[in-house]
Amino acid sequence: MSRVRRLLPLLGCVLLGCVLLTLYAPEGLLRRDEPPPVPAGWSPYDLAESIEAAQLRLRRHPDDAAVWASLGNMYLEQARRTTDTAYYQRAQGAFERSLRQPTGDGEPYIDATIGMGALANARHDFAGALRWAERAREAAPFRWALYGVLTDAHLELGHYEQAETTLRRMLDGHPDLASFTRAARLEHLHGRPGPARDLLHRACVIPGDPAEYAFCQWQLGELAWNNGDPRTALTAYTQALAADPEHASARAGKARAEAALGHTDQALRDYATAVARSPSFVIEYGELLHHLGDGDGARRQYAVFTAQHKLLAANGDTDNLAMGTFEANHGDADTAVRHLRAEWKRRQSVEVADALGWALHQAGHHTEAAAYTARADALGGRNALFAYHRGEIEHALGHTAAARAHLTRAMSINPHFSPAGAARARALLAETP
User: Fold this and answer.
1) Which Pfam families does the UniProt record give (predicted)?
2) Is residue 225 exposed (0-12), middle (13-18) or buried (19+ Cβ within 10 Å)?
3) Strand spans (E) along 43-157
4) pLDDT tops 70 at residue 106
């Protein structure tokens, strides 16, 4: 499974803003005495028109700090929808122009300050995001969007207690769409899919435009997929695409669900469409091609990934998590360990712990690997890939009972979590007494 794809929920939350209701139920973040959401319908959405309108306004009023900040956020939204990181530089330029414009009180335009924090999160500069958000909080503590930036940064750095504290502050101050999605993510990390699903259903009745609705439906699809329900996931991804046909993440999710349901031809067509819009899904596409016996097609997709990340590295934007995961699964294990040890020094999230543990296992360091994969499970989340990795590592250590328990757990959570991984888990379970 591509780590790039697994980070996409963060980018979505980065761009959606603030926070939701207070933490009511002891097992979660949500009351259960409210009516279910009503399905929404949308016409196709074209963010490019809004960007063009903002650019036209700025040609006439180049000193409008608010419009520059709005344009920066639209570029970030475009990056989220397409996963095209080229929009980051445009967003940075717009935010910087906003910050340079004088305001009535002489302070930098606060939306641009928050936007710079969101941009830092999107670029995986989580420490930088904290600095921008704290700067915004000092100037305007009741601008709730800044708490979204703080929450996202703390989550990615592995500061889970700080993330929850910040989320509570957001919930108390301003419940909104971004609050629901962030709270749902926290519920999922703690292994509570029911409350996470309820939160996302409520989020889906809040959006004011099709792109936000598509984002909510995509998140519902991801939640259903991660919990082993490809049919429900397919429905959600399809609804996301009905609202926003250009939503690359939903297109890739639809392909993933179709492959799990045996609709192979349609899955391949949807993957081809997704990677044409965004290279973030080339590994996922390649892994399916390899599983289907198309080794040449898989290698072509992996070559696209390698070229993309060489270009990013040349610009100083190396993604150690994505590169380390790729090397662990399809390249050199020692190189993977180097990338992921570097990432672990930057942030200690459960995703990085799992990736590093798997790379260490692939490099033959099974005992050290087991410690990291155990840490990845520490929050109690339901993650089939994490459980599979623990099972493989316990098998390598000769711990037969523990291996069987983790592999069984992986398949019970999501028997379709990875074409190769699921097949390997079934094989190990068949041979393990």
Assistant:
1) TPR_16 (PF13432)
2) buried
3) none
4) no
Token pair of 175, please?
């419940």
Half-sphere exposure of 239 (CA within 13 A, CB side): 21
**Domain enclosing residue 427, as ranges:** 315-431
74 domain residue, yes or no: yes
Q: Residues 106, 108, 110, CA angle at the centre, nearest 5°?
A: 125
pLDDT over 90 (residue 34): no
Residue 283 in any domain: the answer is no
Q: 276: which 2 tokens?
A: 């044409």
Instruction: Indicate the residue type of 269.
Output: R
Determine the pLDDT at residue 18. 33
Which of 425, 354, 424, 343 is closest to 383 using CA atoms? Answer: 354
**What is the spatial distance between Cα 399 and Cα 248, in angstroms, rounded to a whole number?**
41
| Among 138, 170, 192, residue at a domain's last position | 192
Q: Dihedral (C-alpha) 67, 68, 74, 80: value to the nearest 10 degrees?
A: -160
Q: What is the mean pLDDT of the chain?
A: 88
Residue 28 pLDDT greater than 70, yes or no: no
Among 107-111, 116-120, 233-237, the range scoring the smallest mean pLDDT is 107-111
8 A C-beta contact, residue 385 and residue 354: yes
Note the residue count of the chain: 433
Nearest to 240 by CA among 257, 258, 221, 217: 217
pLDDT in tens, 264-278: 999 999 999 999 988
Contact 130, 98 (CB under 8 A): no
Last residue of a domain, one of 158, 173, 192: 192
Q: Give the model confidence (pLDDT) of 182-193 as tens digits.
A: 999 999 999 999
- Tell me the C-alpha distance between 413 and 193, whole Å: 11
